Structures are given as C-alpha cells and as structure tokens.
TrEMBL record:
One of its GO terms (molecular function) is transmembrane transporter activity. PANTHER family: CHLORAMPHENICOL EFFLUX PUMP RV0191, PURINE EFFLUX PUMP PBUE. Keywords: Cell membrane, Membrane, Transmembrane, Transmembrane helix. PROSITE patterns: MFS (PS50850). Residues 1-378 form the Major facilitator superfamily (MFS) profile domain. It is a multi-pass membrane protein. This is Putative MFS family arabinose efflux permease. InterPro entries: MFS, MFS_dom, MFS_Efflux_Transporters, MFS_trans_sf. The chain crosses the membrane at residues 12-30, 42-61, 73-92, 98-124, 136-154, 160-180, 201-219, 239-258, 265-285, 291-312, 324-343, 349-369. GO terms for cellular component: plasma membrane. Pfam families: MFS_1. It comes from Oceanibaculum indicum. It is found in: Cell membrane.
Amino acid sequence: MSPALRIGMTGFGLIAVCYGFARFAFGLFLPEIDHDLDLGPALSGVISGGSFAGYCLAIIASSILTEKIGARAVAMAAAIVAAVGMAGIALAPTPVFLAAAVLLAGLSTGLASPPMAAAVALAVRQEKQDVTNTMINAGTSAGLVMSGTAALAMAGQWRLAFLAFTVVAAVLAAAAIFSLPRERAREKGRAVGWPPMTGSLLRLIAAAFLMGAASTALWSFGGQLVSQRLGWGPTGLGLLWICIGVGGMAGAWAGILVARFGLDYVHRAFLAPMAATILVLGVAVPTPALVVIAGLVFGAAYVMLTGLYLVWGVRALSDRPATGLMLGFLTIAIGQTAGAPLFGLLLDAFGAAPATMAFAALALLAGLFQDHGATLRAAA
C-alpha cells in the first residue's frame, strides 16, 4: 500500500471520529439531550462554544507537540481523548458533567489535524499532498453520515450512540500505531513558535474566523431549528445529518479544484451557497425537500472551505505544515467559539429569522479576504 493511501485512509478515519463524532454529533443529538437534561438555548450555545474553545487550545498544543514528538504519538492521543470524552457524554448525569465531557471530546479534534498534515508532508510525494490532505479533511463528512445513521438505527438513544462512537475511537488509536510515521516533521534548527504574520496569513485568519462563526448556525443549532420549524424528531434530524455528510464528500475535491481554478475563485464560489443554506433554515418557508437540499449544499460548502483553508495555510507555511494547518483551523474554531453562544443569544432574543440573516451575512463577508498570491501559484 502506498504511503499516500495508507496515511490517507488512517487520517480519513481519525478525522471522521474526532470531527464527525466527538465534535459535531453534539448538534445532531442536541434536541434529545436538551429534553433529558433541560439545557435551554443559551446553555446549549455555551456548551457548544466550550467544545470549540477546547479545540482552540488543543490545536495549538497539537502543532507544537507534532513538531517535537512526531505525528504518530499525537494522532494516537487524539483518538484516546475522543474516546474518553465521548464516554463522558454518554454517561453525563447533569448539564455540568455534560459540559466538561463535551469540552474534552472537543479537544480531540484540535489534536487530530496537525499530525495528519505533518504525516502527509513527511511520507507523501509533494504532487499528491494537496489531494491527500483534502481527502483526509473530508473524513468529517463520513463521520457525519455515520453519526446520522447511528441516530436512525438507535431510535434517538443518544447515550448508546456515544458509547458506540467511543469504541470506534479506540480502534483508530490502535490503527495510528501501524500506519503513521514516528519521526518529527521539523528538522533540527528550523524555526519554531508563532510564525510571522504575512499578508496571506492575515487574510486567511480573517476569512476563516468569519466562516467559522457563520457555520455554527447549522452545526450547533441546525437540528434545533429544523425540529422547531418542521417538527422533525430523531429520524428526520438523522437524515439531515446524513445529507450534510454526503454533501461534504465533495470536499475531497478541494485540492483538485484549487489546482485547477485557483484558491480565490473556489473560496468565493462556496461561501455564497453556505450563506444561502443558513437562510433556508431560518427565513425561507421550510419544506422537507428544501431542508434536505440545504443539508447537501451546506455539507459540500463547509468541507470544501475547510479543505481550502487547509491548503492555504500549508502553502503559506510550507516548511511547517502542522503550524500552517493550525492557523487556519484554529481561527475557524475561534469563530465557532464566538459564534455558537452569540447565535444562541440572538435566537433567544429575536427569533430564527434575524439570527440566521446575521450569520448568513458573516459568511458572505468572508469572501472579502482573498489570497491573491495563492491564486497565482495555483495557476502557474
């Protein structure tokens, strides 16, 4: 098996578990969790924001640790943390316990991505790196499909679902031992610490922050909005999550599209549909067919954009791929940390329509920030 395929498959599975299960499945099961533990919209937003905050801390630590101790150890740690956090969610007796478990599970996602970027840089030929990285990033979509399927198969038993997710995470920890390189991505004498803020990195940070904040309208509250407006129960919400995951499979093509059309063009092309899907859930007259289409489009747009920010960051810091990825993904998470509680407050105070209109505008604003240099490099 080639290094690209071996690392790509392991990374795809790890990202599926950490992002699709440990991080975003909370939004899928939120209506049931809210019913059982009486969270309320404001507390739900705070807990969801706590997950994103944990991600922010973990991804910084992960990029540093990956450069110091290697990709394999950090990837294994990500899977183990995901398993422990999801076990805590499954067993949570109170909202406070749940918040702590969601925070711990959120740490796994921050730990997972930098070691995979470093492993790709170490073992995969340069011409295949963008494609391999964006294929790994699309693992989020597979995780969403599986979590949505679990919600259908387990008839809304969210505790049982998170216990099953825990077992899968443990299996991925073992897989990392055999498939990822042990050596460090950083050569002796290479720069460490926070990188200099070039124009390209600053524009990446601004765009990623706005897109991340906007995305929480669906990630944290999409299930709740659909449940309120259409009266969907666990079966309907599971189908929505599957649609988001299926649509997100298109994100595996991000590297190919960036190479063909340039980073700037692809960026703008997928922010507009993200904004439209946010509006559909809060402003348009919803129908089941429209919600399904919105799920497919949102999944494609979100995973494509995260893959694009991955490529943007790795290219901007080609000698430190784990740190380059960290900057883009950290900023997405900071945006989500701010966006989740803000959306919860807007939803409480003004209702669905004003809240979703404001967050759709944030998605469109992200398109003002472009990496013109990356466009030229892609076209060269």
